[in-house]
Amino acid sequence: MVKEWATVIHWQQGRALLRYGSSSGCGSCQARATCGSYLLNKLGSDGIHQLELEILQPLQPGQKVEVGIPEGSLLRSALLVYLTPLIGLFLGGALLQLWITNQLWVFCGGVLGGALGFFFARGVATYWDNRQEYQPVVLQIGLPPDAIHIQQRE
C-alpha cells in the first residue's frame, strides 16, 4: 500500500477536499546540480495536489488524513499510461514500414499509432476510474488541530 498524509481543506456532507504534497527528497542531496531527477522535478508543477474523497466522519480544515492506494493498481495504471502509447508508436511505424518504404509515411504511422495508444489508455483509465481497487482509501484520521492544548507552567 502506497501511503500519503493529506491535509483537509474542506469537508461538507461526507465529501472531503484534501491537499497533499510530493514526498520526494529531491533537492536535499549534494548531487542535485547534476541530477536529472532534480531538474525534471523543478520543471514540473510545485508538487501540491488536491483530491476529493468520501469520508463520512466530520472533519475540520487543517486536520490530517492518511490516504493509501494498493501498489498493484498503481503499477497497472503506470504501465497503461506509459506503455500503451509507446507500443502504439512502434506498431504504427512497423506496420507502415512493411507496406510503404517512404520514411515520412512511416513517421506519420508511428505518430498515429502513438495517438491511438494514448486514446486507448484514456478509455481504459476511464473504465478503471469506477472500480473500487483503483480508488484511494482512508487509512487513518488524525486529531483535529484544536484538540490538543498545551499549557505552560511558570
Automatic annotation (TrEMBL):
Question: Which InterPro entries does the protein's record reference?
Answer: RseC (IPR026268), SigmaE_reg_RseC_MucC (IPR007359)
Q: Which UniProt keywords apply?
A: Membrane, Transmembrane, Transmembrane helix
Q: Which domain of life is it from?
A: Bacteria
TM region positions: 79-98, 104-125
Which is a Pfam family this sequence falls into?
RseC_MucC
Quote the NCBIfam families the UniProt record gives. Answer: PRK10862.1
What protein name does the entry list?
Sigma-E factor regulatory protein RseC
| UniProt source species | Photorhabdus laumondii subsp. laumondii (strain DSM 15139 / CIP 105565 / TT01) (Photorhabdus luminescens subsp. laumondii)
Q: Which gene encodes it?
A: rseC
